[in-house]
Structures are given as structure tokens and as C-alpha cells.
Amino acid sequence: MEPVLVLDQLDKSFGGLTVTYNVSFSVMPGEISAIIGPNGAGKTTLFNQITGNLLPDKGRILFKNEQITGLRPQEIVARGMGRSFQITSIFPEESVLENVRISCLSRRKEVLNPFRNVARFKEATDQAYFILESLGLAKHAERPAFELAHGDQKLLDIGIALGLEPQLLLLDEPTAGMSPDERQLTRDLIKRLWEEFNLTLIFIEHDMDIVFGIAQIVRVLQLGRLLAEGPPEEIRNNPEVITAYLGEEVR
Ligand SMILES: Nc1ncnc2c1ncn2[C@@H]1O[C@H](COP(=O)(O)OP(=O)(O)OP(=O)(O)O)[C@@H](O)[C@H]1O
Ligand SMILES: [Mg+2]
């Protein structure tokens, strides 16, 4: 089996500050994996390079065997990569349904033209409802997005990404700012979405219950370098990882 995503020696600096250094790894299709590491380790910057929001200074990114380094984010999305943001990207004044429907329609390149093709519009609406049901947000479909609780806004952001029918989905701190109860639910939800939508899924997360609960592979970034990569049990017992990030208490 070929990897779906390959990072090959990615370097990125801001001024004199090296934020990713020589980062290489491969992600297999259908894998669910986590990226962990201290604040400022370069996790989000790495996602930004993968999704075309930032250009690496050096190195290559291959998605489904094609070079995507230097492509614009929209082009990368069109090839089947989706993401949610650490800070959500919803349209606050639009309804919850509309937020997801817009992305379902844009996947079909028919943005905001419901009258040209009623059948397609209906299809996108059904798809949006299906996604909202999966996220437990269907009951809020008609409400403006800004009225949602923070945790639900995070889920809506994932819904927007799913509307684009990605094969590879990147989630940046899906449970940030959530209560412990919400986190538990979101952990189960992420696992379910991964299965239901046949995703290859990479998530950045600080909550180790979630990381060690659902990731098949864990990658640890420290000061922009890939410190370790492997199955959860191995990472959890890796002395370097414990020193750099985990501490003793999670063992
Ligand atoms: N556009 C930018 N210009 C300058 N420095 C930046 C920029 N973006 C990120 N940085 C710096 O790069 C480093 C890595 O940031 P990044 O956001 O990737 O960390 P992170 O691992 O996602 O951290 P967190 O867990 O807090 O989200 C930080 O020191 C940050 O201040
Ligand atoms: Mg970050």
C-alpha cells in the first residue's frame, strides 16, 4: 500500500526562528494518527504547510503520489484534503445548515446558485443534513452559527470540512476549550467520523486521553523536530518523549 501523504524533510523558519526542521513522515491510507508536542513546537505550522497555507522553505509534500508543495490551499482542498482550524472558520451570521451546505455546494462548484439546478441543491442539502446528524448538530440546523456553544462551533467547523468530502482530514485541537464531558463525547465522535466517512485522519491534540485512546500512530514534535513516531504504547514509554513533553503522570 502506498502512503496517502508524504512529508519529505520540511524546513520552515520565521526570521531567525526555526519552526519545523527536517520533518519527514508518511501517512498510510485509513490511518488515524495524532501529532503532539509542547506549545510552540510547530504543530500548527506543520499543518499550514501541508494544507498550502504556508510554503515550506525546503522539502516536499506528496499527497496521493503527487507533489502539492507550492499549490494554493483551494487546489489542495480540491484534491481531497480537508482541515479544521484551531480557531474556527464558520460564517457566524449564516445558519448551521447553510454553513455546511455552502461547503457541500462548493465541492460541486455550484456555490450559491440554487436556482440553476434544484436537484443538486436538494442533494447538497441532504448531504449537509447527513453530516449535521453525524455531528449531533441537526437539531440546531436553522440557528445562526454564532448562537452555538463553543464546543458545537468546533464541531460545525469539522462539518464544513466534511462537506468538501475529503479523503484526508486534518483537525487542529478539536477539543480545545471544551469541558471534560464535551471532550469525552468529541473523542468518540472523531473515532466514529473516521469510520463513517472512511477518512485518513491526522489530529493535533493536547488531551492525552484522546491521543492515546484513538490514535494508531502518535508523532511527537519538539522544537520543530520529529522527536518520535510510533504506536501509542511505544510513545507513552519513550524516555525522550516523557522528558520532553509527557512527564511521568500519564504513564
Ligand atoms: N506567521 C508567523 N510568524 C512568526 N512566527 C510564527 C508564525 N506562526 C507561528 N510562529 C511561531 O512558530 C512557533 C510554532 O508555532 P505553532 O503555532 O506551529 O505551534 P504549535 O505547536 O501549534 O503550538 P500550540 O500547541 O500552542 O498550538 C511559535 O514560536 C510561534 O510563535
Ligand atoms: Mg497550534
TrEMBL record:
Keywords: ATP-binding, Nucleotide-binding, Transport. PROSITE patterns: ABC_TRANSPORTER_1, ABC_TRANSPORTER_2. The keyword Ribosomal protein does not apply. It comes from the Bacteria. SUPFAM superfamilies: P-loop containing nucleoside triphosphate hydrolases. GO terms for biological process: D-alanine transmembrane transport; L-alanine transport; L-isoleucine import across plasma membrane; L-valine import across plasma membrane. GO terms for molecular function: ATP binding; ATP hydrolysis activity; L-isoleucine transmembrane transporter activity; L-phenylalanine transmembrane transporter activity; L-valine transmembrane transporter activity. Residues 5-248 form the ABC transporter domain. InterPro entries: AAA+_ATPase, ABC_AA/LPS_Transport, ABC_transporter-like_ATP-bd, ABC_transporter-like_CS, BCA_ABC_TP_C, P-loop_NTPase. Coiled coil: none annotated. GO terms for cellular component: plasma membrane. Pfam families: ABC_tran (PF00005), BCA_ABC_TP_C (PF12399). The keyword Lyase does not apply. PANTHER family: AMINO ACID ABC TRANSPORTER ATP-BINDING PROTEIN, CONSERVED COMPONENT OF ABC TRANSPORTER FOR NATURAL AMINO ACIDS-RELATED. This is Amino acid/amide ABC transporter ATP-binding protein 1, HAAT family.
